[in-house]
Fold this sequence. Notes:
Strand content: under 5%
Oligomer: single chain
Helix content: over 70%
Order of helices and strands: HHHHH
Largest sheet: none
Low-confidence stretches: none
Mean pLDDT: 79
Radius of gyration: 23 Å
Distance between the termini: 51 Å
Number of domains: 1
Structural class: mainly alpha
Amino acid sequence: MHCKNSRRERSLTTSEIEAEQGSEWKKFMRKHWQVFAIFAVAIILAAAGAVYVAWWFTGYAQNGLVPSTLGLWSMANLIFFILNLIFWELVFIGIPAVIGAVIGWQWWRRLPQEEKVSHLFGRSSRSRNAGSGVSALLFIAFAVKVYIDGNWNQAISNYTLNYVVGSMIIILAWIAVIIGIPLTIGAVWWIHREMTKKL
């Protein structure tokens, strides 16, 4: 009996802590929503820029750096392409991202000490298998794209670099539209509600 009561007390304590964390997070977001909106826009622009750089370098690399047909690629071509792509991503996206991170860190350091509550960002993710789930989703979406394009029975070695990269960009655009529209509507509704509360 004592054991059951102890478990129940621990469960209630955990629920109270989670409720308090949620309340603190909402207060923090409500107070600094402009900053979070700026960082959200910056993240979206960085993601779009990274996709554009990948598309640009894909076209540029086929002007003598790597073969256009994937069936002609060697391991040297693959490593060369990846290293150069990483370099250009770092130049055009990585450096601005680091600058943005430094600005964010400086903003965080200037916050009052009482707002720097560790449990605001201390929640652990419950989705440990998110990476494998995303990979499976991208594979299924690519298979659907290949089928729609009428390339289902074509040899994979005949796929061009432009086709593969272009297909992945289109798939990412699909995902962004499907997920981004509801998130944008929810974010606008939340900001409007919080602004109404202040008034």
